[in-house]
């Protein structure tokens, strides 16, 4: 990518897209195309076709998606499968139509089977049944991977797919009902401290294990892969380390300085027991995550305090 190439970042206001914008701006890119949802509804095929025909970007980062935590996936499965399929179909097909040089599609670690061997290697895709709490979302993401691969095969495009682990950072969704676990606990524990509560409730048993990657590291990895990876096969992006949800809650308690107790609501779902990515492929290509979980949480907490009322 040249510094004045036209680069479209779909989903530039979200957790991932905004981190990619920060990274590209820091690297000196000057021709970044952004559209808010109001300006361009990515679910609308005609609107996306017109946008691509007019703008003809050189490169595309496909970071736009309908996303949410375990509860949101449970309440809105129809929206998750429909909107994600629409958004990715519209963008990928039109990128091909106008000759985009390279596109990077962001998937998710939930594409792997529920009871996959751990850590999860790229080749475990489609080797078992998915986790039911996010199956519609995962099916859409798997369709996106297959779409990129099929277009490469049939039309000779250069569309790559990456699978990030659970992400967190600036511009995340901190809604208590719909967000992922890390921003939810950050907010719950912050509010508990502010309101002098003696306890904080964490969903599930606290026993599931999850891997967390600070989104600025993710942006660094996708920038690296956009320049150094041109294969069909998906690439995992993570740290290669996971922790129990109960340990995550303790770490956030420590960062925020909350002294109350954590209680568990086992009536809420745990989801998949473990979701750890094997990142040896990415490490072998020459990239490693470098922000510790505690540092990432500290930075995110500072952002949260500065940006939310
Ligand atoms: P998942 O990784 O797709 O399962 O999505 P989440 O990030 O929503 O949930 C991860 C784990 O954290 C699950 O076991 C949840 O039950 C647990 N968890 C504990 N407290 C919370 C909470 O307040 N919000 C969310 N979203 N998950 C929580």
List keywords for this structure.
alpha/beta, Rossmann fold, six-stranded parallel β-sheet, binds guanosine-5'-diphosphate
What does this structure look like?
There is one protein chain. This protein is of the alpha/beta class. The chain has a domain of 213 residues: 3-Layer(aba) Sandwich (Rossmann fold), CATH 3.40.50.720. It has 10 helices and 13 strands. The chain has a 6-stranded parallel β-sheet, with helices on both faces. A 3-stranded mixed β-sheet has the order 11-8-13. Strand 4, helix 5 and strand 5 form a beta-alpha-beta unit. The mean pLDDT is 97. The structure holds guanosine-5'-diphosphate.
- Going across the biggest sheet, name each strand in turn: 2-1-3-4-5-10
Unreliable residue runs? none
Helix content: 40-55%
Per DSSP E runs of 2 or more residues, the count of β-strands stands at 13
What is the terminal separation in angstroms? Answer: 39 Å
State the helix count.
10
Instruction: Assign an overall shape.
Output: globular
Q: Roughly what is the average pLDDT, rounded to an integer?
A: 97
The level-1 CATH class of the domain at 7-172 and 211-240 and 275-291: Alpha Beta
CATH topology name of the domain at 7-172 and 211-240 and 275-291, in short, is Rossmann fold
CATH superfamily of the domain at 7-172 and 211-240 and 275-291: NAD(P)-binding Rossmann-like Domain
Largest sheet: 6 strands, parallel
List ligands, each type once.
guanosine-5'-diphosphate
| Beta-strand content estimate | 5-15%
Gyration radius (Cα, Å) is 19 Å
CATH architecture call of the domain at 7-172 and 211-240 and 275-291 = 3-Layer(aba) Sandwich
One letter per element, helices H and strands E, the order comes to EHEHEHHEHEEHEEEHEEHEEHH
Which structural class best describes the helix and strand composition? Answer: alpha/beta
């Amino acid at each position: 990518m040249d510094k004045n190439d036209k680069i479209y970042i779909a989903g530039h206001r979200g957790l991932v897209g905004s981190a990619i914008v920060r990274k590209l701006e820091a690297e000196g890119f000057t021709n970044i195309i952004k559209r808010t949802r109001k300006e361009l509804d990515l679910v609308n095929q005609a609107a996306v076709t017109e946008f691509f025909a007019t703008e003809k970007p050189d490169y595309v980062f496909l970071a736009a998606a309908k996303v949410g935590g375990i509860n949101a996936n449970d309440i809105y499965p129809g929206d998750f499968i429909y909107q994600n399929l629409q958004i990715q179909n519209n963008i990928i097909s039109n990128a091909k139509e106008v000759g985009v040089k390279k596109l990077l599609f962001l998937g998710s670690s939930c594409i792997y089977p529920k009871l996959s061997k751990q850590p999860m290697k790229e080749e475990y895709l489609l080797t078992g049944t998915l986790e039911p709490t996010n199956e519609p979302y995962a099916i859409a993401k798997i369709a996106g991977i297959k779409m990129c691969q099929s277009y490469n095969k049939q039309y000779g495009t250069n569309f790559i797919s990456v699978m990030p682990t659970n992400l967190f950072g600036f511009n995340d969704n901190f809604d208590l009902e719909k967000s992922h676990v890390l921003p939810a606990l950050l907010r719950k524990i912050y509010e508990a401290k502010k309101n002098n509560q003696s306890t904080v409730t964490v969903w599930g048993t606290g026993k599931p294990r999850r891997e967390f990657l600070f989104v600025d590291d993710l942006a660094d990895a996708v920038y690296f892969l956009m320049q150094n990876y041109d294969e069909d096969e998906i690439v995992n992006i993570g740290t290669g380390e996971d922790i129990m949800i109960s340990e995550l809650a303790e770490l956030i308690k420590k960062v925020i300085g909350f002294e109350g107790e954590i209680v568990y609501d086992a009536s809420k779902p745990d989801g998949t027991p473990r979701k750890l990515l094997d990142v040896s492929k990415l490490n072998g290509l020459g990239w490693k995550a470098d922000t510790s979980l505690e540092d990432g949480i500290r930075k995110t907490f500072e952002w949260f305090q500065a940006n939310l009322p």
